[in-house]
Amino acid sequence: MRTRPAARAGQYAALLAYLVFLAFPLLWLLSTAFKSPRELGSLHPSWIPRHPTPGNFRQAFDEQPLLHAALNSLLVALGATLIAVLLATPMAYVMARHRSPLSRAATGWVVVSQAFPFVLVIIPLFLVLKHLRLIDSLFGLVLVYVVWALPFALWMLTGYVRAVPAELEEAAAVDGAGRLRTLVSVTAPLLAPGIAATALFAFVTAWNEFFFALVLLKSPGRQTLPVVLTHFIGAEGVADLGPLAAAAFLATLPSLLLFALIQRRITGGLLAGAVKS
Amino acid sequence: MAAATRPAGRAAGRTAGRAAGHGAWFLVLPALIPILVLSVGPLLYGILLAFTDAQSGRTAATRWIGTLNFRDLWHDTLFWESFRIGLVWAVGVTVPQFLLALGLALLLNEELRLRRLARALAIVPWAMPEVVVGIMWRLVYNPDAGVLNETLRDLGLGDGRDWLSSLATALPAVIVVGIWAGMPQTTVALLAGLQNTPRELHEAAAVDGAGAWRRFRTVTWPALRPVALAITALNLIWNVNSFALVYVLTNGGPGGKTRLPMLFAYEEAFRYGQFGYAAAMGCVLVAVVSILLAVFLAGRLRGGEDA
User: Fold this and answer.
1) What domain count does chain B have?
2) Which residues of chain B does A144 touch, with a Cβ-Cβ cutoff of 8 Å?
3) Prior bond to A5 cis, omega within 30?
4) Structure confidence by residue, pLDDT tens digits, B66-104
């Protein structure tokens, strides 16, 4: 369709405004991360650091146990991802292939769980985990993240399973392949990209999560990266801006890189789940 | 069409389900147990807690106190103030975010240069930890070293202010951050909806001389409506549940002006140890979210009849 030049110019102006709105906080974070303390203290901050310095990064690692926190985050996110995918894949398969009251109840739970206010879940969860002696434990947090990731993983994976034609499985069965054999050599390879995308998304959400980690982890040595980041902000809301920006920037890099890998699949998968259920 | 295929599908599903039998249970059980223990169970437990005087670290046994917590909540002006702030926040984020994301999605759907860059940028907040988004905007709003005040100074619009600490600007300031942070999901959903609208209809309408607004209203919007309703409902729910952003930005201050219900309940439970009372707050929030959902579903059903 042709668009009039005036309308085109208007569209570009609007797009430019969006670009500015979306990008400026990100650029400012990056700029602050490389500014020296003296420059941060001056009254006229500039977009481009006058004397860029990596000092903030060094200081960030000195001030807070960032590496240790990153390791905690990595362990929790990996554990939660592995368990969630292992549990969700068979269940998603059943939900996609067999309509039963159970699958309908599970789908209902997937939808309803999106509406839970976390407050109502966190207090009883805290008490349950306390009974199990899993407060202030990374394993306890892993369990919480598993349950938290399951609705989304089920949603995505059900969509991906539906995208694998059942006829393929039937053909394999006709050729004499057993049920397990069919699943392993026909369904699993076709499902692999979807599983990978779901796993990466689960990893990113666990890596980024804050609320449960704040409530459930008490000792500083066990806290995850987002919780440790908030320690840069003092009680009075005063913060050492340079190291804060540097640490925040570093904490985001893994999420951004992983998300860039899966972004198209995730948006596609979300909609596939939405359209077909 | 859906109505015609559904009975056949259900019948086929029933036989398949019976054939699957024990195998299906075996596959479902591993996921079902953690869901029951750590999700469904706690939810029910939480509702029960709302009717008790449960407190953290107390030695005396927890007792049933009926609806006392709810009666106390009813008279708790701080809670209702927080509730009001939560509504202003949820609506104040959801509505402008929808309009902004719709505009962006319409632009991204055109053949414009820089489209890819804008799309990539629009997705970035989705991947960022909420804590980092909060920290980032604290840097933007910083009274001295922040870019907002510096820009105002450069434009000769005064010295700016301490956006997050002043009573008048704190809530609007955090709402802007909420809008920014939620752009990706809304934009992506609307863009996908737009790409599903039939192009031929659009072109036919243009040939018939319909202007851009008329084309949007008669061709684009009807096709986009289900997606728009779904994402708006989800946004409302997510925003009612929002915690980390505001916790990092203002921690509910100044003077409780940004104390969302989630922050209020968190303090009540984990700072003051009032588990029962906080659970009652959670119940009220669930009720509100359920009403919002019901309204949404009703709207969606009506939309279905139109189509």
Assistant:
1) 1
2) 38
3) no
4) 888 899 889 898 999 999 999 899 999 999 999 999 999
Q: Is residue B238 part of a domain?
A: yes
Helix boundaries (H) for chain B: 2-35, 41-49, 68-75, 77-108, 115-127, 130-141, 147-154, 170-195, 199-207, 212-215, 221-240, 244-249, 261-270, 275-306
**Residue B103 near chain A (CB below 8 Å):** yes
Which sequence spans correspond to the domains of chain A? Answer: 5-53, 57-276
Domain boundaries A57-276, CATH class: mainly alpha
Per-residue pLDDT of B137-196, as tens digits, reads 999 998 888 888 888 888 888 777 888 888 889 999 999 999 999 999 899 889 888 887
Chain A residue nearest residue B271, CA to CA: A215
Q: Say which range, A134-143, A240-249, A263-272, B221-230, has the weakest mean pLDDT.
A: A263-272
Query: How much is the ipTM here?
Result: 0.87
**Quick check: is B28 in a domain?**
no
The shortest CB-CB distance from B34 to any of A43, A47, A143 is to: A143
Pick the closest to residue B244 from B83, B140, B131, B89 (CA basis). B131
Instruction: pLDDT band for B305, please (50, 70, 90 cuts).
Output: very low
Name the band, by pLDDT with cuts 50, 70 and 90, for residue B130: very high
Nearest CB neighbour to A119, from listed B32, B237, B281: B281
CATH number (domain holding residue B256):
1.10.3720.10
